[in-house]
Specification:
- The chain contains 15 helices and 6 strands.
- The chain has helices at 2-15, 30-40, 43-50, 53-56, 66-99, 109-113, 140-151, 187-202, 226-243, 248-259, 266-275, 279-292, 306-319, 335-349, 354-373, and strands at 102-107, 127-133, 164-166, 175-178, 214-216, 222-224.
- α1 crosses α3, α9 packs antiparallel against α10 and α14 runs antiparallel to α15 (354-373).
- The relative contact order is 0.10.
Length: 374
């Protein structure tokens, strides 16, 4: 536990290098810290702290050895090369969809990276791109069918999920084409979310001068604005925290998002989060951001709540990025075991987030039928 506490204290400094360097760095084993950072997919965040001018001269007698520095530098260099590659592929994918008559918006990933002090040091994943016909049909279902029909010209045998379909890889980078950014198991929360998502995107045209949720990255793709991401990124965290697991990379994405707030109406956003059934998860993530990672409370949308924060924090530390290291990981081999672990996770979280957990088994049955039709 002492080791973890020293890592988190140093992580606070890495996120905000205007802070004093914590004395706990005197006890850090730099190789072990790298392993922790890899587990949580936040190597670049730690590296920007290790490599900061104030840290270089003050490690409390525990300066990284030449071998430590080379190990960290090698990992940071790989991150930067991968980030550049994913930027290029994202622009290529977005450009192709535009040529085919679809508007698109990058979700998470390279768009969120732009909020980091050094975007190239965020660990890149696959490409999640939200796509809809340039000419809005007026119906979300018709737009979904249009996207599915186009994608199946290239991946005819790929099974579609309710919110996305696996598309052709861009080189070695996986591409997920979203026709819905996210979903909720609770039917009324899902209905509200889908109406909101469709309303945000249905009137968007990237070449229009009218205000929209799309921001130009300057790299050949669009990404969502602050208000949309407050809702979408939190819901992405919520869904993964309940069903698979979430890591520090996703929490730090939200940290940098909220840190970028330029006077947005927080009361309005808090009301929207409650409307979508996300008040509790918002308060839990606020607690992690404020009490664990040191974000000033002025930046969070909903007041911190330790009850909801601690249960998510414990899962983050045990499971790592997307719960890959968790004993409760539902993605274990075999349909039976997968479903059994899902139910176990539902029961664990039931008293904290009852609406989603009670509806999740029913959504799974409904989703099975939806996939059969699509």
């Amino acid at each position: 536990m002492e080791k973890l506490e020293s890592y988190i204290e140093f992580l606070k400094y890495c996120l905000d290098t205007s802070r004093p360097i914590p004395a706990s760095v005197a006890t850090i084993n730099w190789h072990d810290l790298l392993e922790f950072a890899q587990k949580q997919s936040i190597v670049g965040v730690f590296w920007q702290g290790i490599n900061s001018p104030s840290a270089l001269n003050n490690f409390y007698g525990n300066k990284p050895t030449d071998d430590d520095v080379m190990e960290w530098m090698g990992e940071a260099h790989l991150l930067q090369m991968q980030s550049k590659l994913v930027d290029e592929k994202a622009a290529w994918v977005a450009g192709n969809f535009k040529q085919e008559g679809f508007k698109s918006c990058l979700l998470k990933g390279q768009g969120i990276a732009l909020l980091y002090p050094n975007p190239a040091l965020r660990t890149s994943g696959d490409i999640d791109i939200w796509v809809a016909p340039m000419k809005a049909s007026g119906s979300q279902e018709e737009d979904v069918e249009a996207v599915l029909s186009y994608c199946r010209k290239f991946v005819p045998d790929t099974k579609a999920c309710y919110h996305h379909i696996d598309f052709r890889n861009a080189g070695e980078i996986s591409v997920e084409v979203h026709y819905r950014p996210s979903w909720a198991s609770c039917p009324w929360h899902n209905q509200r979310l889908q109406k909101y998502f469709f309303g945000c995107f249905s009137s968007v045209h990237p070449s229009s001068d009218e205000k929209s949720i799309l921001l130009d990255s300057g790299k050949g793709f669009f990404y969502p604005d602050f208000e949309f991401n407050v809702i979408f990124l939190l819901h992405h965290i919520y869904r993964h925290a309940l069903y698979e697991g979430i890591g520090l990379r996703q929490i730090i994405d939200y940290y940098y998002l909220l840190f970028s707030n330029k006077g947005v109406n927080k009361a309005k956003l808090a009301k929207q989060l409650a409307y979508f059934g996300m008040q509790k998860i918002a308060s839990g993530i606020s607690w992690i951001l404020v009490e664990i990672l040191g974000l000033k409370e002025d930046y969070v949308i909903v007041a911190p709540n330790a009850k909801y924060g601690r249960i998510i924090w414990d899962d983050i530390i045990e499971g790592g990025n997307f719960g890959k290291y968790s004993s409760d990981q539902p993605s274990a081999s075999g349909t039976y075991l997968h479903n059994l672990k899902r139910i176990k996770k539902d029961l664990k979280m039931l008293s904290y987030f009852p609406a989603e957990c009670l509806w999740e088994p029913w959504f799974r049955i409904w989703h099975w039928a939806w996939r059969k039709r699509h």
